[in-house]
Amino acid sequence: MPSVKPSTVLGRQLGDELRRFREQAGLSTAEAAEVLDCTKGKISRIENGHVPVRTPDLIALIHAYDVAEPEARERLASLARTANRRRREGWWHQYGSVLADTYRDYIEMETICDGIKTFQVQLVPGLLQTPEYGRAVTVASRAWQTPEEIDQFVQVRLARQERLTGDDPLELWAVLAEGVLHQQVGGQAVMHDQLEHLANLAERPNITVQVLPFSRGAHPGMFGPYLLLSFPRVSALDLVLTETPTGNIWMERESEVARYRDLFDDARTSALPPTDSLSLIRRIAKEYRP
């Protein structure tokens, strides 16, 4: 067995898809095990993301499950390559000393997803932060102590933002509680630059920003931030990441994901339209002007 264990989240994503194709093909775990000349336990571990999937095994399963669509084949191959590499070839590997496992998992998923929807209660999302704002947030978290650790984590956040540009940019839809615009992270000058940056990004075709105003009162999303990650149409296995002070939590069950889809739909329909949100962001940015 390879010494590098794949990311649990990535492994589960791949395993869930393989299970779906196996069931569509009408094969049992015992019959799938015959294809690989292995035990039913190994098939179960593959489908639960507990063990890597070697390339020869993946090819054999793809043939046995009659996965004919080229897009589906490439999707499975891409997931397997990414999971089995883990972080050895990812740009984030060089920052391993300042990244928790869950955060590394998130970065890996961020590199292969095609859309993110997020609701934030107090902070501008990391993908939309300026370096100064990101630094102020990192210092305030107290999770990193030395200047070197803080610098490295800020660099990670900035490197992640490259997903918003290029030939195939990520689709990002962010709904921000109005308090995000008033929480003075880093001081007035930092907030002015951050809100101007946010407004400029919101004008890009792949980025939507909405503000949920104070006037909306109590709402279902006020209990905490979350992110919904979606993937190319071959996979319907979306993921949810909730953020807490002690760590992040992945949710993968369809019932849980559906609940967060409903929460986001409620947030975006309750929020100001994008054009009105942009006007509000720019107006508040002017109030921070030094």
How do you describe this structure in short?
The protein folds into two domains: 8-85, 434 Repressor (Amino-terminal Domain) (Orthogonal Bundle); 112-287, Endonuclease, Chain A, CATH 3.30.870. 50% of the residues lie in helices and 12% in strands.
Explain the overall architecture:
The protein has 290 residues and is an alpha/beta fold. The chain folds into 2 domains: 8-85, lambda repressor-like DNA-binding domains (434 Repressor (Amino-terminal Domain)), CATH 1.10.260.40; 112-287, Endonuclease, Chain A (2-Layer Sandwich), CATH 3.30.870. The protein is 50% helix and 12% strand. It has 12 helices and 6 strands. The protein has a 6-stranded mixed sheet, with helices on both faces. β5 and β6 (247-251) form a beta hairpin. It is elongated. The termini are far apart. Mean pLDDT is 86; it is low at 1-7. One of its GO terms (molecular function) is DNA binding. This is Transcriptional regulator. Residues 18-72 form the HTH cro/C1-type domain.
